[in-house]
Batch of 4 targets.
Target 1
Amino acid sequence: MIGDAFVFDCVAHVFNFDKSNAVGPPGEMFSNHLYAFHAVLTPSGETVLPPESFLRNWRPAEIDEMVFGQSDTDMLVAMPLPLTDLYQDGLSAWERCVELASLRPDRTVFWGSVNPLEGKRALDLMERQVKEFGAKAFKFYNVRYDYGEPYPWRMDDPKVAFPVFEKARELGVKLIGVHKGVPLGPQPIEHTQTWDMDGAAAAFPDLNFVIFHVGLPFIDEVCWQLIRYPNLYASIAATINFIVRAPRQFAETLGKLLFWCGEDKIIYGSEAPIFNPQWALKAFWEFEIPKDLQEGYGYPPLTEQGKRKILGENLLRLHGMDVAKAKATVAAT
Amino acid sequence: MDDPTKTAFDALDTVFDPCCRERGISIVDMGLVASLQVRHGQASVELVLTSGWCPFAARVMGEVKEKLEALPDIQRADVHVVWDRPWTMDRLSLSARTKLRFLPDPIEVGDRQSYVAGHVRTGPAPDHSNAVEEETA
């Protein structure tokens, strides 16, 4: 807890940056890209790891220690990366995320992830991830490099995306995340945009979709979609890490979300271990939308109630969890 | 004789960040050019990025260098990213602002509910279920 806020972090990855894991130069470039995030956005006074300490095979126990031992986080999502086009094991192998979740089964939730382009194999893996390993949601990455070329798919594609959504529904999973905005390397930009989310949200009104990274830089588009679809949400994972280096930029992004979409639609995430969660959590708990943005542009204030919802209560609700029970569980462990 | 700095600036206006190329917004319109100096055939450009995330920075920097060094008055161009100045919306040109931002500032909206109600298309949600069949028919 930070202050009186329950913190439920929607994303940490068990990265394997070992050079042998990268598939050629694109994989190595992406590893360096993530290191640049770490080095550029970590504030002065905080630990910036040298490349050799960051670009390595992280162990689940290290992620667990960083999130729970070194920050005020109460619950965590262990998030796989199925980037098998860039890394032998996808970069954050789902099996290792299961291992991370198993370290604190009451506090770490496993989300599954598959490549929908694999058809039946993907559907079978979804079933296994839910039935054998307790996946509570799925995360998808629709911009890929399969066959050595960019190979994007769309979230509103009835032949590629809808079968995995139907499978999730059949398995009783009602929460779907999707990486948007932030290109994973030099990828076709149009598929990092969010326009395909209209079709997904409209066709599956009983599923909730979280647009990760608030689709930056396409924030106006994301706001307009969240306004129109009650089952669309936005995660500020990685976006929150601008809070110290570029607070004005973060204030504008968050202010837009608060005004247009409201505090019930915004989800916190740390992206550990790219960033140690604590500095951004502390900065967020102390953060205010600047007065001139409120008075001059009409942005709403960020209240303590809003912070509590964003930091944990919204994600608990999306998992069907009760705040008081979650607090009690964490206190007991 | 043309002013070499103006010629260089015009050349930068033909360089695009991939995120904005399809909308015809150059790096000048985006406000990415923090400074430009041309002296004795040497150009020096400082760029400010919209985001530390941008994986296209190297590509944009390379294109800036190529475009400038292709000019007859410039033999060498040095391109740097500056990190001590944040990019803000204020740096957008009026045309870029119009193309990129379709939501007004909240203060211009008045009552949010009324604004949304007045701008949301009525009727059923778009049906994409036959999209593939229509494309392949």
Target 2
Amino acid sequence: MVERKILVVDDEEQIREVFRQAFSKAGYIAQTAESAEEAIEVMGKSPAWILFLDLNLPGMNGVELCRQIRKDWPMAIPYAVTGYASLFELSDCRDAGFEDYFTKPVNLSDLLDAAEHAFKKLDRWKRR
Amino acid sequence: MTSKEGRQHIIEGLEAGANDYIAKPYDIEELAARINVGRRMLDLQTRLVEKEKLQGVLEMAGAVCHELNQPLQAVSGWSELLIMDLAENEQNYAPLKHIREGVESIGKLTQKIMMISRYKTVDYLSGSRKIIDINESAS
């Protein structure tokens, strides 16, 4: 079984905190970062398998961050969570390597379902 | 229309706001063709104004959705987290459920605003002003 580690990247503190608490409550180890640059730093020290990335980040945006992560950690599964759906097309997000795409406000239960599903997939890959 | 073909008169007329001119005695077919030119110009002007209005609406919609969805996510998330620990008969369950329902309605509205692709208005305050018809504009 892969370690149940999740990284939440969002520049809004309240959103990071509420997602972190929801994942912790569900038994995951949840880390947070407020920018793409910090996310790469966190991944370097303690890589997460599942990531929830805001797209509209200061500095490097979420789509660029996703490309970087898929390049450096190809087994990681990133999800996009965006406040403004038209900022990037779904096809751009899929192209960058996002597994799925959520528009804020998203139900925590939907994010928890996504995490559960992704970890099941990772466990299956790991058994190969 | 002008019966004088003098260059100066034509320039004066155009400068004063005329879009075109035709010299008397005029040919009826030419007049009809020039009217069609005028119609095309009017049509282009109307389309340009509509396009500019839609552009304004889209910019506003983008700003509203971006600014609104962030705090909405926090309210939605915290209320969902709180309600997870409550049984239906507990004191705060019903108010929290109302908060969640309210957030959900606003969330649906911002999703719809993000889908706006046309400029359609609807009368507001018995027609004294017009507002964007979100349902029609986003369909």
Target 3
Amino acid sequence: MIKVKNLHKKFGDLNVLNGIDEHISPGEVVVVIGPSGSGKSTFLRCLNLLEDVTEGEIYVDDQLINTPKIDINKVRQKMGMVFQQFNLFPHLTIMDNITLAPVLLKKMTKDQAVKTGHDLLRRVNLADKAQAYPAQLSGGQKQRVAIARALAMSPEIMLFDEPTSALDPEMVGEVLDVMKDLARSGMTMVIVTHEMGFAREVASRVLFVDQGVIMESGTPEEVFSNPKNERTKLFLSKVL
Amino acid sequence: MTAFQEWFTDFSNLFYKCFIREDRYKLLLEGIGVTIRVSLLAVLIGILIGMLVALCNLSKRKLIRFFGSVYTDVIRGTPSVTQLMIIYFVIFATVDLDKWIIAAIAFGINSGAYVSEIIRAGILSVDHGQTEAGRSLGLNAFQTMTRIVIPQAVKNIFPALCNEFIVLIKETAIVGYVGLMDIQKAGDFIRSATFNAFMPLFGTAVIYYILIKILTLLLRRIEIVLRKSDIR
């Protein structure tokens, strides 16, 4: 579903990604872990070209996407993204946050979008918040709306960029629960997170990224209980 | 007769002479119409130009940024009276347009330079995460700008824009230079016809004040609606 070949990313003189090769299959829940500054967020943001790629190739559904020839907006419509800082649109109600893209991009009529919006809000347990504004919600509620907003475009893949890092501890659980539900429903997901417990429970595969390369990749069992790479061991000894 | 009664009689005689006799109030009414027409059209032109120039100034292409900065630079660096007269007597000298429309274009061009800086500041004030969220949903750059960034920018810059509109209305008091009879010019006309400075000048001031007061109240209403989404 997503194929990454020899991905390099430089910010000025700084090498953030130093040749990443990775293949994500449909239905996989890939959790990316690693120390801060390791390039894991940059890797995720390259997948939908929020960062432009310095070198290498990214394929989505066997289509090369880092080329001017393709319409990146079309590709992004099938890749939902959830951000650390939620990035809800503060000038719009929760419902309008959810319906804006599907209606504007002509995926649905306004009526259909509102109906889907109510379904999605029920799914993230926020059925009563449709007419509220983002400023009236807690962090956890905002992030659940952000997930619903991304799902409204019926994406094939969901990208999560540290979705719980900006939350108060007591709100982390409610967001992770929604993500677990989503994983169980068979959604293909790539998740950058520091929640090791969650990674162990939900991931079908864990990637350990450090110094801009994938140091280790395997099932949660393999990576957490039996890490082979020295750097993985060191990292896990600090966070577990 | 008490001093007050005496003063009052003088005042009302003067008032009658300046505003009522020979239907002079009609001059002022006409002036109010001109001021409002010129200001309204100029505000619209100013916003349009301002948006365009702001987008130029934020462009990734150097050449486009250059045009934007030259525009802002030249307009801010020259007096508006000079600009008005150049546009009226030089650029539009042979064009058959109503005087007030030409004046509005001149003020619009002038205001555009200031509005562009306000809009640029507004766009920069919106967190970049908003743009990323819009783009990640598949919106193109234009849709993201018009549906997500600009609505938030407008809310942030609304007070500064109101300020600019108020300045613009008062700035139009120089249209007399190209022979338009606005409020200021009408007051001036009455002054030379009656040989009295006090009444027409204060009259002019009061009219401007009331116009701007009404506008301020209206704009405050709009701001309250814009701030609706901030309620917690």
Target 4
Amino acid sequence: MSTIQTIVDLIYLLAAALFVIGLHLMNSPATARKGSQFSVVGMVLAIAATLAYLIDVGGVTTTGWIVLAAGFAIGGLVGLRSADKVKMTDIPQLVSIFNAVGGGAAALVALTDFVHDKNLHLATIGPTPAVATALDILIGAVTFTGSIIAAGKLQGLISGSPIIIPGSKIINTILTVVGLGSAAFLFTGTTNTDVLILLLVAALLFGITLVLPIGGADMPVVISLLNAFTGTAVAMAGFVINSSALIIAGALVGASGTILTKLMADAMNRSIPNIMIGGFGQGETAAAVSGGVTGNIRQLSADDAAIQLSYAQKVVFVPGYGLAAAQAQRELKDLAQLLEDRGVEVLFAIHPVAGRMPGHMNVLLAEVDVPYTQLYEMEAANLEFPTADVALVIGANDVINPAARRPGNAISGMPILDVDKAKNVIVIKRSMGQGYAGIDNELYLDEKTSMFFADGKKGLASIAAAVRELVAN
Amino acid sequence: MSHQLLTDLSIFILSLLVGFEVISKVPATLHTPLMSAANSIHGIVLAGAMLTAAQAHSNLGYVLAFFAMMFAGMNVAGGYKVTDRMLKMFKRRPTKPVVENVQAEVKP
């Protein structure tokens, strides 16, 4: 082992350590940014070391250098630009795209390596690289197309409702057989490119058929799962080219994605296979039932809401995805600030699946300067509801439905925010429409609940205006 | 099972366990930046792309290398940038710092 090689390997080790420390520092919002910076340092060191290694061993052609530099420059610029431009509501799409390119790059590493081995006219490749190559291409390619479809759904380019392809069972069976068959053939160490291409195509198609049938509200689980896939694909690429840096980084991401997937699935009380088969949003249009709910609804005006809120000691805001869809985060913060200035204790109760990816709602509220000390996770928030004078719900539905505590319905067993434990509940909502689960919300009929029928943005703005007027008088 | 594979597998399994341990302590508030940070970390595939691209000596090899570099470059540069953008927004007290608060922070 040359001196340079040893130094490079030591730098990889340092980089891996920095990644772990960086992730560790993310255990608190106060240190998280420093953690990300540690991780950047690790990454820059690893890339610089790789560059030094390439220069040292030589063998890169001039064209090779140009290709390296051009690819990196173009990709890097596109990445930076999209990271600069992206709106916080669109973060899930961007993360999906980064999952796609990460998985794609991992698959390409194995492909390039395979092509190289073939050019060396090797009759077979060793069992380890063979298995790792097959897995890398399989997982990487599924992640690539799957994430693109997920991003398309989140962006609204592809319908968010579950798309059921006719004969999908047969198609998936064929793809699985072809994929596993060609993977098994690759395990034998063949350098036959046709088999590789067959595996690649089957995996790419499988990524599409996997994500298309999944509904929009299940995206937090899907993104997390694809994130775990990308990590695993990168780790497999590490096995292919014998790079411990890739193996460690890939495994860390794999672990992170797996944890988030489980948390999200638990928060929706659904199993991962159940989500992958297709959403329960399929029969959602059965609105006929909702007519029965109109019975005992109390409505209130902006002035009434303003009085309730202004004279409360403690107000819990419950934002759901509808808030983000209405782009009403600023209006919410404005109202919260007004109440705080009056001495009202204000906090925000965030359900794990309140956004389109894990933790999304927290980012949206942080963007409008809500301090993170006011952002309460579900369990902490549920301790606060019994002492809250008013719970104000904006754009949340299924995650506050008390029906979840009873067996026998679509959301039974799903952990919910105990909004009904607050002394008074105000719900800002456009209509009595149902949530994603397609069932009525009995909270709206509760005698301490008042409905304020309005668009989230306008509703919050009019309540804030009423509070201002009230305070002025 | 070769020595190399055994080493690689050990590293893989232990890193997974470290990952589970470290990441399970991240609060739900930070899950989006966490995923974005993890996303950036798998940008290390850039190093892999560089190493394999160095072996490219055919047109097909160059094309594959180019896309690998482009994808990985986008992943790593964009990932870190957007993570930092998000984390910058998480503040304890975004409103004008009041003197009391500053003192309270220094105290412990």
